[in-house]
Structure formats: structure tokens, C-alpha cells
Fold this sequence. Notes:
By secondary structure, the chain is α+β, with helices and mostly antiparallel strands. It is 34% helix and 38% strand.
Amino acid sequence: MVNYIRVQQQAFDIAAELDALHAGNSAIGAVVSFVGLMRDMNEGDQVATMTLEHYPGMTEKALEKIVAEADQRWELMGIRVIHRVGELRPTDPIVIVAVASAHRGEAFQACEFVIDYLKTRAPFWKKEKTSEGERWVDARHTDDRAEKRWQR
């Protein structure tokens, strides 16, 4: 299995990342992906930019642990996780999670698991710039609920 994890400032090419995940492996029958985009509204306020911060090294280790757990739970043939940091604008892609497997059911479940855990266990911090000034974004209760449904 080929796993690929990257944290970067530059934009990524969604189609190229999906192609790279399944290139040359004719046993793959399903690729499921999630792409998170920056929204222009949050908590009723217009958001001009968002800055994502992280701890280099620590963040990648957290992502590796999440991917390894998905690997243990499902029969997968590859996972790609790319998460951006730095300043982002509305409609910019923030994250891609893509999972390959022989069958769609496992790919769907693993993809959802990875993004749910990423939202709660990966050390990223978001600061939004609005017309009211800058503010740090708190974790959402819905993310915590999503994570809990995967706990054994």
C-alpha cells in the first residue's frame, strides 16, 4: 500500500493527486475523495482570509497516525492526505483526503474516518480575518461528535 502525507503552502491539483493515488494499480476498484474548501462566511460574518498554522513535524506525525489507524481498520490500497497552511482565500482548497481500495464501501468509510479524525486530532490552528478584525476559530462540537462515532 502506498500512503502519501504532505503539509504545504502551495495549492494542489485535485485531478493530479487522484491520478497519482491509483496510477499503475489495476486492482484498485474505488477511489473516494474529500476536498475541503475555504468558505467566505463563518458564524454569520464575511471572512476575507484564513491563516492556517501548524507545528511542523508534529502535524505530519499526527496525520501518519490517523492514516495508520485507517489502514488497520479497512483493506486499503492507498491514502493521500494533503493539507495546506498559510493564508487562504474563499474557494481555495484546504485539504484533500483520497482513499483507494478494491471496493467502494471500505474506501467511503476510510475517507470519512480520516477527515473526521483529522478535524479533531491534527494540530492545526485557524485565524480568520473579517471586517470586525481577526479571530481564532474554535473547534466545532459537530467535529467532536463525528469523531466519537468511530471510537471502538
